[in-house]
UniProtKB/TrEMBL annotation:
CDD domains: ACT (cd02116), ACT_GcvR_2 (cd04869). Residues 5-77, 90-169 form the ACT domain. It comes from the Bacteria. This is Glycine cleavage system regulatory protein. GO terms for biological process: regulation of DNA-templated transcription. InterPro entries: ACT-like_dom_sf, ACT_dom, GcvR, UPF0237/GcvR_regulator.
Length: 170
């Protein structure tokens, strides 16, 4: 078996997921993990599929048939498992929206040896105060030797600087 990671983007409309799933199934693939969303009228997603090595090329070619509807890019996933299980922590970021929050938080995480495993962000209307509210849920993995306390200290420093609340949980 080989793992393929598909990225899909196109104008949002009914049936897009079904068309990708039909092709994966027709080629003996197994849809394992995915994150799919409608964003500003566009459909975007990432899908992890496993398929027999001898059927992977045919699956890639079949996915090209969606080119008028969806732009599909196929990447071969890594077959190697990590030597040790990395530690994961989750953090939530909330504050008044402004440009640069994601850049600053992601730079601080990277500088402390934290790799973003999953991130979800959104902006909403701040009901009582007016303006926009930025919210993010971020799961990170820490490389060996990185202390959670060091990460927390850096995030607390950053939170005060950019005026957001950051909460961390294991």
């Amino acid at each position: 078996m080989v793992t393929l990671v598909l990225t899909v983007v196109g104008d949002d409309r009914a049936g897009l997921v079904s068309s990708v799933a039909d092709i994966v199934d027709a080629h003996g693939g197994n849809w394992e993990n995915s994150e799919l969303a409608e964003l500003a009228g566009a459909f975007a997603g990432i899908v992890e599929v496993s398929v027999d090595v001898d059927r992977a090329d045919a699956l890639r070619q079949a996915l090209e048939s969606l080119s008028g509807t969806l732009a599909v890019t196929v990447h071969t996933g890594s077959a190697t498992a990590p030597a040790s299980v990395p530690r994961s922590v989750t953090l939530d970021v909330v504050g008044n929206d402004r440009p640069g929050i994601v850049r600053e938080v992601s730079a601080a995480l990277s500088a402390r040896g934290a790799s973003i495993e999953r991130m979800s962000t959104q902006t909403t209307d701040a009901a009582m105060a007016g303006g926009r509210l930025f919210e993010a849920a971020i799961t990170v993995t820490l490389i060996e030797g990185v202390e959670v306390d060091d990460l927390v200290a850096e995030l607390e420093r950053l939170a005060a600087e950019i005026q957001v609340d950051v909460s961390l949980s294991d």
